[in-house]
Amino acid sequence: MPRALARVLRRSAALLAALASLAPFSVAAELRWDPAPTSPPGALADLLYSPRAEFNGFAPEPEHLPLTLRLKGPLPEGVQPGDVIAAMEASARTWNAVSCAQVAFKTEVQAGEEVSEVEAVELNFEPGIGPNAERIAWTTYPTSPEERASVTLNSTAVVWRPSPDPFQRFAEPERPAVDLQAVITHELGHVLGLSHTLAHNAAAMSAAYLRDGRQRTLSADDKLGLCALFPAEGRECARDTDCPDAGRCVDGVCDPHRGQPGDYCAFDLMHCPEFCLIDHAPTGTGYCSEPCNLDADCPTHFACLPRAEDDASVCTFAPSPELDRAPGGCAHTRAPANAPAAPLLLVVLGILTRRLRRRSTSSRR
């Protein structure tokens, strides 16, 4: 793809007033990013790659790459500088590994108040104030081509962790735990000019924060969006077999394996292109689902039924009576609140057995 076309794409989006940040969340709700503004569709139609990426209009000039990263200011209590620097460097390497794009970041992070003549993307922690009071993070865009964007992580609304902690919500519901590297990877995508993707929910630039750390890695949509902005010669794959872990080759880049409707999912396995329908809150487990209009839109043993919380129709597991009477598996009932640990363990084992059977019988063929 000609570099001139990529330059047109970077500059074609009108300046956006909204910050690319995380939306306010309630304790009971899933963490979600703010709705992303859409990009002008014209330039995308002519691209060699046609990702469903969205662009924010603030991509840096190619000659400014690779961008310098700098950690600045005090850290929240319990957050170690080494953990933040490691997360920043790992996030930089993730974006740099996109074979069809220019190298995006320098991987050595500057730290402290050291004086530097080099413009840098600064990352700092601050308490959220006003509209940012309950946001997890936000990106502030530059006002001129010579400036750099900055990333701010909320020092009070969440507990920052160096690794994913998907089930922490039930232990400390008042302050959800958030994975440093996953959030920094997402915010650096905004720094590079990407907005929230409409492709699917299992992407680094997804509009939903994923508890399992999946946003540490890039989807094909994330990669192709970057390649549209900063094209370079290179391919990650030529066929599906070139991609690890049953991934797919999409326009020369690998897309990680995604769950299909009916596949098992949980807070620690958020691989669904649409969403994970949690049907057993105590264990945080469920199955991949998607919106639907008719039963025919759903896999075998699924029906198109409204969700209780919003009446939106989704594919819902609805086995026939004959399937319920089939031999095999085990039955279970809800344990009373004062039940000892052994019966509770049997309940959990029954749930997992049912998930595995469901996955084998309801995946699309």
UniProtKB/TrEMBL annotation:
<dbReference type="InterPro" id="IPR024079">
    <property type="entry name" value="MetalloPept_cat_dom_sf"/>
</dbReference>
<dbReference type="GO" id="GO:0031012">
    <property type="term" value="C:extracellular matrix"/>
</dbReference>
<keyword id="KW-0479">Metal-binding</keyword>
<keyword id="KW-0378">Hydrolase</keyword>
<keyword id="KW-0732">Signal</keyword>
<keyword id="KW-0482">Metalloprotease</keyword>
<feature type="domain" description="Peptidase M10 metallopeptidase">
    <location>
        <begin position="175"/>
        <end position="230"/>
    </location>
</feature>
<dbReference type="InterPro" id="IPR001818">
    <property type="entry name" value="Pept_M10_metallopeptidase"/>
</dbReference>
<protein>
    <submittedName>
        <fullName>Matrixin family metalloprotease</fullName>
    </submittedName>
</protein>
<keyword id="KW-0862">Zinc</keyword>
<keyword id="KW-0645">Protease</keyword>
<feature type="signal peptide">
    <location>
        <begin position="1"/>
        <end position="28"/>
    </location>
</feature>
<dbReference type="Pfam" id="PF00413">
    <property type="entry name" value="Peptidase_M10"/>
</dbReference>
<dbReference type="GO" id="GO:0008270">
    <property type="term" value="F:zinc ion binding"/>
</dbReference>
<dbReference type="GO" id="GO:0004222">
    <property type="term" value="F:metalloendopeptidase activity"/>
</dbReference>
<dbReference type="GO" id="GO:0006508">
    <property type="term" value="P:proteolysis"/>
</dbReference>
